[in-house]
């Protein structure tokens, strides 16, 4: 796990270089909305073409924190799960879908540059994220 942050960063940077920051954000949300079209309504006030890349960066930093600052990340993600209740988000499946969608989007953009090391870093980080979300839902929601 020592090099996970480096692997996550590398895969994310490569995808940004390939597509551009805003385009990667838009593609990520496009993929997410095609899996969960019912969530579009939550973002009706958000200009995804403009904010998509920024929002994606925020989510990515939360995920990296799981590796770099696990205690902080646990508290922070738990707090976001609680705070997101105000947007009407009471189904943990959306969080799982969101993190899966991110690694799949990067994998698709990278194509043959995707590696089994990226796979491992993303799978383990996603699993840790899901376990924090599960705990948050079971404890607070
Ligand atoms: C890793 C998981 C997530 C993190 C770290 C996260 C983080 C955040 C943060 C920091 C904000 C407020 C800042 C801002 O204005 O951009 C926000 C807003 C919001 N989030 Fe999340 N979020 C996560 C998952 C989700 C999921 C799964 C959904 C819904 C499917 C969602 C829907 C929203 C909505 C609707 C808003 C308010 C509108 C907007 O800011 O565009 N979030 N999120």
TrEMBL record:
InterPro entries: Globin (IPR000971), Globin-like_sf (IPR009050), Globin/Proto (IPR012292). It comes from the Bacteria. SUPFAM superfamilies: Globin-like. Keywords: Heme, Iron, Metal-binding, Oxygen transport, Transport. It holds the Pfam family Globin. GO terms for molecular function: heme binding; oxygen binding; oxygen carrier activity. Residues 1-130 form the Globin domain. The keyword Heme applies. Belongs to the globin family. This is Globin domain-containing protein.
